[in-house]
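Researcher: Going back to the complex we discussed earlier. I've cleaned up the inputs and rechecked each line, so this should be the final set. Can you rerun the prediction on the complete assembly and write out the structure?
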Amino acid sequence: MTFRRIFCFVFIVFFATLPLWSDVFHTRLFTRILIFALLALSLDLVVGYGGMVSFGHAAFFGTGAYMTGLMSLHGITDALVVWPAAAGAAMLIALPIGALSLRTRGAYFIMITLAFAQMIYYFASGLETFGGSDGMRLLARNTLAGKEFLRHHEFFYYVAAGFLAGAFLLCRRLTGSRFGLILGGIRQNEKRMQSLGYATFPYKLTCFVISAALAGLSGALMANETLYISPSLLHWTQSGHALVMVILGGMGTLAGPVLGAIVLLLMEEILSAFTQHWMIVLGPLLILVVLYARGGLYGLWPQKKVSHVTPP
Amino acid sequence: MSPLLETHQLVKRFGAMTATASVDLTLEWGEIHAIIGPNGAGKTTLMGQIAGELKPDEGTIFFENQDITSLQPHGRSRRGIARMFQVAHVFPASTVLENVMLAHLSQRGHGFRFWKNARSDRESRLAAMNFLEQVGLENRGEALAGTLSHGEQRQLEVAMVLAGNPKVLLMDEPTAGMGPEETARMIVLLSRIKGRQGLLLVEHDMETVYQLADRVTVMVYGRILASGTVEEIRRDESVRKAYLGDEKEEKEANA
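Model: Rerun complete. Updated structure for the full complex:
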């Protein structure tokens, strides 16, 4: 318990003070890490808590980013409008995708979410207004209540950190609520939940749409960080990347995907400095985690609470 | 008075095999009605159709005088038909208490409450504890259901179906795989809850049937062979023949 507390303390102090002593390059690197952690967290809500392995979360991530681009083309650049709109657009897309995909389960669900995401990827690749497959530059970051705070990388870092912390606390309430309890039952045995009198479909769809909102938000943040949107944000490798973070960190926990995002992106950064074939190192490591640490990195935590995830 | 539950000419085919052939069955309030028969007689198929997991090819199911044949499983469950499975179907990674809370909450409005902590909700904890006490699991509330013994998991199942406050209880071999001690405990438990609802029981163990049932129906090859009180069934010549015939065939097959 003490080790756990010390680690959490160091962890929080590190992330809370990072822009104060770090250079711009590392501040921006960690901003991206925080944004991807938000994406991984949203994905874990569906995969780890809902038991629905979505291989199409890039669709919602990319939709958030493209919504940011679309609104900037029309001169709407204030974050207070754009970001909720980005999350809303992702939800709107998630509603029909979820409604159709959730009629299947298991491997079929994986394939159909992948198919929908790829459809949107090719659709975006054909959009001339957004530069087609080349993508499009954004002129500037969104304004915040009319002021240009966000162009300061340090400030933007704290905004991303704030969103991640907020989403973390939100998910904690959500998974502990009556809705979360029911979702856990559905993950473990959907047929049993039906025989108990639950119509399971609306719960799964709600979970899917909430998750998409967070993913869309992270997409809007990413568009602001890189000032660049392209179909690669919608590509299936993006979905896979997020899934790897969740599995590496430990699905069915809230700290797991955050940890997974940090570790994966840092390792990519460090390994790619040594060799461009860094995937040769990362690949076997992932296989080891899947084989020997089924609870992910977070599951290796000393005196861990028993992970309540059963394999789907 | 019309019966609580009634099936009328229920037919279910799997390809060329007829699993239930024109089955007429009734269940009255407060009684335990046992269905016995050799393997493959269509007992579980019949239960599946009453619970709504299987759609009958022909026939109707009435519950409280209403036709429920086209209702989904969760719809039937909401009206008060609870199912207990052949294999224990608890949620292994949730605590025992959470299992019962899930069963209890399903009857109490919708579950779209996103904010308040459900696990520490006093009212539903108390309610769940009450059902755990009824089945003798009050000391195991915080254990993960997956860590319970087989017998305890079946007890938990009973607590879960009771928590739904059902009018009809469908039980598929509640004592299957249990040792003599656990079986005895289950029989006591079932006789204690008897009278609060109608209980339709599929059971292989004749001793259990003789101790619990008010009425027995014998099924063979998807048909009802005989139906009556325990005494009537014991004396019935055709029932004896059906069972003996089976044994003979088995012996020949083994030889």
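Model: Worth noting: Residues 303-312 of chain A have pLDDT under 50 and may be disordered.
Researcher: Good, that matches what I expected from the previous run.
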